Amino acid sequence: MGRITFPAKIEIDIEPTDKVERIKERVEEKEGIPPPQQRLIFSGKQMNDEKTAADYKVQGGSVLHLVLALRGGLSS
């Protein structure tokens, strides 16, 4: 059996006017994950890069889920 590691919580400061693409850039600054590989989920919905935090009603203390979109398919 292998070991599964889950990433630690990432805390970033954002403004209500920040677009999702800017939030992804801040995640890259902290964690080194390029924005094209990031999928941000809030309230069960994938966030669109062109919308703002305010569009999704993201507030201080809100939790966004980061899913990595890795290239390639399953190998058999």
TrEMBL record:
UniProt key word Methyltransferase: no
Gene it is expressed from: Nedd8
Record InterPro entries: Nedd8-like, Ubiquitin-like_dom, Ubiquitin-like_domsf, Ubiquitin_CS, Ubiquitin_dom, Ubiquitin_ubiquitin-like
Residue ranges of domain Ubiquitin-like in the record: 10-73
Keyword tRNA-binding: no
Gene3D superfamilies reported for this sequence: Phosphatidylinositol 3-kinase Catalytic Subunit, Chain A, domain 1
UniProt xrefs under CDD domains: Ubl_NEDD8
The name this protein goes by in its record: Ubiquitin-like protein NEDD8
Species of the source: Portunus trituberculatus (Swimming crab)
Pfam family, one: ubiquitin
Similarity remark: Belongs to the ubiquitin family.
Keywords annotated in UniProt: Ubl conjugation pathway
SMART domains membership: UBQ
